[in-house]
Design brief:
This protein has 100 residues and is mainly alpha-helical. It is built from one helix and no strands.
Length: 100
């Protein structure tokens, strides 16, 4: 048997064991899978943070809107009462003036 072509005429002194191509590919695939898993975790965390931010924004908007509506109802009922008092005073004053 002749020696393998890449070893012919070369001595083994100082030779470095090189990993087999399959080992290199497997290591690269493992690193890629680790990166993909980490990336997936990062994306899920970012999605959770975004959802929490949206929920907080909705809650703030809901509270602000409820406060606005309460103010509108209070102001509207105050205006209605003022208009009724003004109408009663106007009717009462008008009747008194006509009867005098």
């Amino acid at each position: 048997n002749p020696p393998p072509p890449f070893r012919s005429g070369m001595s083994d002194v100082g030779a470095v064991d090189l990993p087999q191509a399959g080992e290199v590919a497997e290591a690269a695939i493992n690193r890629l899978r680790e990166w993909e898993a980490q990336h997936e975790e990062d994306l899920e965390e970012k999605a959770r943070q975004e959802e929490a931010a949206r929920k907080a924004t909705r809650e703030r908007a809901k509270a602000t809107l409820a406060e606005f509506y309460d103010q509108q109802v209070t102001e509207a009922s105050g205006r209605k009462e003022a208009m009724l008092r003004a109408a009663e005073d106007g009717v009462g004053n008008g009747e008194n003036k006509e009867n005098e």
